[in-house]
Design goal:
The complex is a heterodimer.
Chain A (H helix, E strand, L loop, with lengths): L5 H19 L21 H13 L6 H14 L3 E5 L2 H11 L15 E5 L4 H9 L3 E5 L10 H7 L4 E7 L8 H10 L3 E5 L7 E2 L2 E2 L6 E5 L12 E5 L2 H11 L47 H11 L2 H19 L6 E2 L7 E2 L4 E6 L7 H10 L24 E2 L4 H9 E5 L6 H18 L1
Parallel strand pairs in A: 2-3, 2-4, 3-13, 4-5, 5-8
Antiparallel strand pairs in A: 1-9, 6-7, 6-11, 8-9, 10-12, 12-14
Helix pairs in contact in A: 1-2, 2-9, 3-9, 4-5, 4-8
Chain B lengths: L3 E14 L2 E8 L11 E5 L13 E5 L9 E6 L3 H9 L5 E8 L10 E8 L4 H7 L8 E9 L8 H5 L7 E6 L8 H8 L4 E5 L2 H13 L7 E4 L3
Parallel strand pairs in B: 7-8, 7-10, 8-9, 10-11
Antiparallel strand pairs in B: 1-2, 1-6, 2-5, 3-4, 3-6
Classes of the chains: A alpha/beta, B alpha/beta.
């Protein structure tokens, strides 16, 4: 038997992984009527698997060099100083809002009962942290067809209790960031951009997720890039970055990375709380934190995915246009989505609403599409105030949620993920034409 | 800004005093990012490739300001690690830096009525501020700088280029006008001022104790000291 050193073993394993990828994950041919058209799906090649195996061979497991590489790539892509990886986009939202409750922020911190502006037509994890932190969500209605917050209603909703604006760029479509920022500055409010569905979108030439005090990203497989489970919090504010990291890492005050000690040079010479002077800084907890870190294996996959992100974003825009061409044929039945002025969305999905006089229901159409293996989704929670978990909780509706209710009953979305092909769109167009021809 | 690793190269080494070296680095990758008053970790392990556990390192204040492309530090070769630096750090040497660390001037609030006191190489974190545009925000400032002799003030050229012309600067040379007198400084400023002290550990401890005894609140005494 020939002895080979570790480096050669790695090369050997890498080559076998590439070979395995070619054999196992070779792209399936789309067969109309028997292949599914999913609303989302992971798109990858051998590089993601090679990286994941590399990280497994390293067996560093916790935040390591792949985490550094991944967060650096995100920081460079967005042009932002601090990127903190976490185990999901929902955790990112929880961390971002939790950070604003830190006593390190003095009088600016959020306190129980403070109001946080959001919308009810969205995904729950934008709203649940507000309630979990004993804050009060204030729901503003959204516009159709951009599905983002109604700015005029938001202006009217702000009162002396309002302290924060926490909004998602709905399905990748940026909200009117200028208007929201102006309101926030005028009223001295914190802003969190939930950028989970909009990683790569732009507003006035600037990437979303770079405007607010804090922003969040999701790497769940449905999103623009994936690490399986995963997310990130981004900020240019060094104080907020340290607080987020503390909340993510058990609440600890020390910021040494794994394996490091005393990078501050004051490990045993500081006073914290009622602890004895010089108590080991490594075990000082200044926040009621969590453990929401990402593993290096996940980050290794993310680092490879980041190289594909610009292509993924372009493909999502193309796929959006393909759906738009199909649904624009039927202006009497459908309200098609519209990008916010001055924005360039990397669409998470193609959202469409039935017009009031459409001679069929949303569910009739989506059941038909799903029966023909074309996957659809509602706009997440519909009107979140009507969800079981949100009944009898402390929230406030500003004026009304008429459009939100309309969306709950008449709106759905289709995928724009980069795995969609022109064959799929041809098939989907036929299916939709057939459905509408029957109606006629 | 969370700390990042930077593969760097030594671009200059100068020494106008025995065992005291000023070294400039340039990043071979991303641009350095930090704010005045912060410090870096410097590693000498030539086997380290930026991956895995950060090797043995030492802290050094950055005396260049964030607007400069290169980072400048000054060190005294007197311990095992710094004597190794004396041997290794030559023009062209590649090494890893990790930065930024520390929050010295972020604790200075508000930015008026501030006394800066530095002894010897303790001036380095101040230089990064004095030469930075953010120093214009500081009002009613007094500066006290102590050196063993004029020859030991190797920062004179840098100080001349700093934005401290309009501030009150007092030089103390041990062999001429004696040591910095903390009680005298306190008498001139009182408890209203914030005192920022950087220098040898014994100096910091003594000055801090005197100010506390005189009634200055502990939050108004900011020190740049490491273990």
């Amino acid at each position: 038997m020939i002895m080979i050193n570790n480096k050669e073993s790695r090369v050997d394993i890498k080559n076998k992984v590439i070979d395995y990828y070619q054999k196992q994950h070779k792209k399936d041919v789309f067969v109309p009527g028997s292949s599914r058209i999913n609303y989302a799906g992971r798109v990858f090649d051998e590089k993601e698997i090679v990286n994941a195996v590399e990280a497994s061979l390293d067996f560093w497991l916790t935040e390591g060099h792949f985490s550094e590489e991944f967060s650096d790539k995100i920081a460079d892509f967005l042009g932002i100083d601090n990127v903190l990886l976490t185990n999901s986009g929902s955790s990112a939202n929880l961390l971002a809002l939790s950070a604003l409750t830190s006593e390190k922020l003095g009088n600016k911190r959020l306190k129980p009962g403070d109001e946080v502006i959001s919308v009810a037509a969205g995904f729950p994890s934008t709203v649940t942290p507000i309630l979990q932190l004993d804050l009060t969500p204030v729901f503003i209605d959204v516009n159709i067809p951009d599905y983002n917050v109604n700015i005029e209603m938001m202006k009217n909703a702000i009162n002396e209790k309002t302290r924060c604006i926490f909004l998602a760029h709905t399905l990748g479509n940026p909200y009117k960031i200028d208007d929201v920022m102006e309101l926030a500055v005028k009223n001295n409010l914190w802003i969190i951009e939930d950028n989970c569905d909009a990683f790569g979108s732009e507003y006035k030439g600037q990437k979303t997720g770079t405007f607010a005090h804090l922003s969040t990203i999701s790497f769940y497989p449905a999103h623009h890039i994936t690490t399986g489970e995963g997310g990130a919090v981004c900020t240019n504010d060094p104080t907020l970055a340290r607080i987020v990291r503390s909340f993510r890492d058990w609440g600890r005050d020390c910021y040494c990375s794994g394996g490091e000690n005393n990078t501050c040079g004051k490990r045993f010479s500081q006073q914290f709380g009622n602890l004895p002077y010089g108590f080991d800084h490594k075990y000082v907890y200044s926040e009621l934190g969590y453990n929401l870190k990402m593993t290096d294996i996940q980050a290794a996959i993310g680092a490879a995915q980041m190289d594909k992100l610009p292509f993924f974003c372009e493909k999502r825009k193309q796929n959006f246009k393909a759906w738009l061409n199909i649904f624009s044929k039927y202006p009497d039945y459908f309200t098609t989505p519209k990008a916010t002025e001055h924005s360039d969305p990397a669409w998470f999905a193609f959202i469409v609403s039935l017009k009031e006089n459409a001679p069929f229901t949303r569910d009739q159409l989506t059941v038909f599409l799903n029966d023909h293996l074309i996957e659809t989704r509602n706009l997440f929670a519909g009107n979140i105030t009507k969800q079981p978990a949100f009944i009898n909780k402390r929230w406030r509706i500003a004026d009304h949620l008429n459009n939100t209710d309309y969306i709950m009953n008449n709106t759905f979305f289709l995928g724009t993920y980069p795995g969609l092909t022109s064959d799929m769109f041809d098939y989907a167009e036929n299916v939709i034409d057939n459905f509408l021809n029957k109606i006629k | 800004m969370l700390a990042k690793k930077y593969l760097s190269e030594v671009v200059s080494v100068s020494s106008s005093l025995k065992n005291i070296y000023t070294v400039e680095f340039r990043s071979l990758g991303r641009t350095y990012k930090f704010v005045p008053g912060q410090f870096l970790h410097l590693a000498l392990d030539d086997r380290y490739d930026g991956i895995g556990q950060w090797p043995e390192s030492r802290c050094f204040s950055m005396q260049s300001n964030p607007g400069e492309e290169q980072i400048r530090i000054t060190y005294s070769a007197k311990g095992r690690f710094t004597k190794e630096m004396e041997k290794v750090l030559q023009v062209g040497t590649k090494l890893w830096l990790k930065l930024p660390y520390g929050e010295l001037f972020s604790k200075v609030l508000p930015r008026n009525k501030v006394v800066f006191i530095a002894g010897g190489t303790g001036i380095t974190p101040f230089l990064s501020l004095f030469s930075d545009s953010s120093f214009e925000d500081y009002k009613d400032v007094s500066i006290y700088l102590g050196f063993r002799s004029k020859e030991h003030n190797i920062y004179e050229k840098e100080l001349k280029s700093c934005n401290i012309v309009s501030k009150e600067v007092n030089y103390f040379y041990e062999n001429e006008n004696g040591l910095i007198d903390i009680d005298s400084i306190y008498n001139d400023h009182g408890i209203e001022f914030q005192y920022i002290i950087s220098g040898p550990p014994q100096m910091i401890t003594f000055f801090k104790d005197r100010l506390l005894i005189n009634g200055v609140h502990k939050n108004n005494i900011i020190t740049d000291d490491w273990e």
